[in-house]
Amino acid sequence: MSLGMRIRTLRKALGLTQQALADRTEVSRIYIQALESNRRMPSMKLLNRLAEALGVEVQDLVKTVSSSPSGRLQLEEVLQVSPEVEVWYRSKKLKPRELKFVQSLIDAAISRWEEEDRADGMA
What we know:
With 123 residues, the protein is mainly alpha-helical. The protein has helices at residues 3-13, 18-25, 29-36, 44-54, 58-62, 75-79, 96-122, and strands at residues 87-89, 92-94. It is built from seven helices and two strands, in the order ααααααββα.
């Protein structure tokens, strides 16, 4: 996930507009828009203000989570993260128990699809 996408995701999870984040970080809304679209890169000073405004650590903003060349976050990377990584859905932080539940739903869906594929192959 790119820095811009991470900023946008965190901002939206907090229910902030680009203008509200701009106000909190003392930059223009246009600059926030440029950051979120990866047209600009923030200074270290601004990274600190962004992290504070978004309620995360600087390393959470800049760390690389996905190893996929496409930049897409793989579902397995979300579900099998280390305990210190927080997973959010909309504006709710998911607890480990909730993550396991989501994973069990996905596993059940995949099993059903595989069964349907096998049944289609026999027909």
